[in-house]
Design a protein that fits this description.
The protein has about 600 residues and is an alpha+beta fold. Helices cover about 15% and strands about 25% of the residues. Strands 7, 20, 27, 28, 31 and 34 form a six-stranded mixed beta sheet that branches. Strands 3-6-2-1-35 form a five-stranded mixed beta sheet, with helices on one face. It has a four-stranded antiparallel beta sheet with strand order 14-13-16-17, with no helix packed on it. Helix 1 (about 25-40) packs across helix 2 and helix 5 packs parallel to helix 6 (about 375-385). The radius of gyration is 24 Å and the shape is globular. It starts with a strand and ends with a strand. The relative contact order is 0.13. The model is unreliable at about 560-565 (pLDDT under 50).
Length: about 600
């Protein structure tokens, strides 16, 4: 059965230059190394800023490619697509409404999304973006026509051209030409290397040689690698025939429509054959909290078609939805509620039948900015059954919430947070953001703990899923790293999860950060510590750690902290800055305020 891993990651303000990121090479190499350690197939990136769609996005794709190419590593192709976060309509200009008119807007905090995927048709093929149903996706007062509209909302898929270091936007779909054949590389175990025609079958258990299976004709200047080197086939692979779209030109789309809302209540979804479901254009909260269909940030989604032999199409097509809710007032709660109505959670487009079908499986995740509480309406709307107003993310009564470890024991990891019993949101295993200052004690004094868990603050990043049996069939196992990749442990050299390899970040990846502008203001001038970096207690210590490539060594003496700063963790307060503190400073200030969330599936 194919094993597919999806990583959701809010990489803070991706594309902005805050003086610490410079040319983005260190950050992108770090992200790529994380993806490689997780062995992820899909990376869903949030907080893509308008300034990120040029060199930063290209650099990340190059870093992903370079993480797999050369040095004897197996080869693969990584593709990328991006989409602005908001649907826009300029009514003042008298322009007709166009559902493909999307942009970065102030109401959406100038954010969008990007998705990267590792091409492996033995696991899945990424589908082209769903066509747009004008009847549902255009407000009735603005409709000027009916029928379907081709979906070109995304910026266009980018792929490798000529060499792994060159990235171009595809001029069209990568489609299997008539008469093309495939090359099975030397070094393949269990199947003879050589050229093979369309429709031939490669048996399960075959281990592909390092060069990967390639599609022979040059398409957009490259022989696409369709199965990565080193991959062991878990199912028989039938080589796709001509006209099969292996890489579409557009894969990402904004969520436009969802379940109807009547008298402020969502109408139940009917999954039955020919179920009468009416879809309406959804509104989402803006940065100011107001619900708007025009200008506010929406969820986005893509759809994969998994290689499951002899399976029904509804079991093979899986929409993957990604959402970053705004933070103003009730915006997180309202955003979660409306995201749960998204059509991509209930139906998928079958491009063979040219029709939407009720799909068995769906995934939705992101930074929801709302504290984990499985009993609140903005969570139960995902886990309730279809006939109870929900999205059906449950299995035999089990809530299918990926990051949902139980409440911790009697001793909390922080002083009391306002009274009341501890909940799931207080378990550090569920906390996905990184903090440097104490949220409850000492008026925001620095945290100085020896425990990396104490630097994890909010339980707001999560994934809901439908149609994966987490029990006997093990269709939704928890990743070996856990549901959240604890990067603080990974850079301190702290103990990895039991039996886990490749958990730690290579020291060479960390050392590259000595070249960012804040340490090297004159290119080639050599690294030097600035006098001050906000929230960094010792810039010199931080530079020493970065130059060493880890945060495990004893620290320099801590500077004097005003007013007996609050401390969380074992007493007494250490005389030196702890490795955990220094690691948290590095992750929070040079990478992101969020940690990656992982979803794994076996199908």
């Amino acid at each position: 059965m194919p094993n597919i891993k999806v990583v959701y990651w809010n990489v803070e303000n991706f594309g902005d230059d805050n003086g610490r990121r410079g040319n983005y090479v260190p950050l992108c190499n770090f992200i790529a190394h994380v993806v490689r350690n997780v062995d992820a197939d899909i990376l869903c990136l949030m907080e893509l800023r308008h300034s990120g769609i040029g060199l930063p996005l290209t650099q990340l794709q190059m870093s992903l490619l370079n993480a797999y190419w050369g040095n004897g590593f197996p080869t693969c192709d990584w593709y990328c697509d991006w989409v602005p976060g908001a649907l826009v309509f300029d009514g003042f200009a008298g322009l007709p409404f166009n559902p493909n008119n999307v942009d970065f807007t102030n109401q959406a905090r100038n954010e969008g999304y990007a998705v990267f995927w590792k091409q492996n048709i033995a696991k899945f093929i990424m589908q082209r973006a769903d066509p747009i149903d004008q009847d549902a996706a255009i407000p009735p007062e603005l409709q000027g026509g009916h029928g379907w509209v081709q979906n070109t909302q995304s910026g266009g898929v980018r792929g490798r051209v000529a060499a792994p270091i060159n990235i171009n936007v595809l001029g069209g779909d990568i489609t299997v030409p008539a008469g093309a054949n495939y090359t099975v590389p030397a070094g393949t175990v269990g199947f003879a290397p050589g050229g093979y025609n369309q429709g031939q079958q490669i048996p399960a258990g075959t281990q592909i040689g390092n060069a990967g299976i390639t599609l022979n004709p040059l398409i957009n200047g490259v022989n696409p690698i369709v199965v990565p080197g080193g991959y062991v086939l878990t199912n028989n692979l039938t080589l796709p025939p001509h006209d099969t779209v292996l890489v579409p030109q557009h894969i990402l789309s904004l969520v436009l429509t969802g379940r109807q809302i009547v008298n402020n209540n969502p109408v139940n979804y009917n999954p039955g054959p020919g179920g009468a479901n009416n879809w309406q254009l959804l509104s989402f909260p803006s940065t100011a909290g107001a619900l708007l269909w025009n200008g506010s940030r929406r969820p986005a989604y893509c759809t994969i078609r998994v290689n499951i032999p002899n399976a029904q199409v509804e079991d093979q097509i899986i929409p993957i939805t990604i959402y970053h809710t705004p933070v103003a007032g009730l915006a997180p709660v309202r955003g979660m509620l409306y995201c749960a109505l998204s059509r991509s959670l209930y139906e998928a487009y079958d491009h063979v039948a040219d029709a939407y079908i009720h799909n068995t499986r769906a995934i939705v995740g992101g930074d929801f900015n709302a504290r984990l509480d499985p009993n609140e309406d903005h969570y139960t709307i995902y886990t309730a059954d279809f006939n109870n107003g929900g999205a059906g993310c449950n299995n035999a009564g089990i809530q299918n919430i990926r990051v949902n470890a139980p409440a911790p024991g009697a001793v909390p990891e922080f002083p009391p947070h306002g009274g009341g019993p501890l909940t799931n949101a207080d378990n550090p295993l569920n906390k996905s953001t990184v903090q440097l200052r104490h949220p409850f004690v000492g008026a925001g004094a620095p945290v100085l703990s020896e425990d990396t868990y104490h630097y994890r603050r909010s339980s707001i990043d999560n994934i809901f899923y439908r149609g994966f049996n987490p029990g006997l069939l093990n269709q939704a196992p928890h990743h070996a790293f856990g549901d959240i990749y604890d990067l603080l442990q990974a850079v301190t050299g702290g103990p990895p999860p039991v039996g886990v390899l490749n958990f730690h970040i290579l020291f060479q990846i960390i050392q590259l950060f000595q070249n960012v502008r804040i340490f090297n203001p004159q290119v080639g001038g050599g690294p030097m510590a600035p006098l001050e970096i906000p929230n960094v207690l010792s810039p010199l210590q931080l530079l020493i750690d970065i130059m060493a490539g880890n945060f495990a060594a004893p620290g320099l003496d801590a500077p004097a902290l005003p007013g007996g700063a609050a401390y969380s963790g074992p007493q007494p307060i250490p005389a030196n800055l702890t490795p955990a503190r220094r690691a948290a400073e590095f992750i929070r200030l040079f990478l992101s305020d969020h940690l990656p969330v992982i979803f794994e599936m076996n199908l």
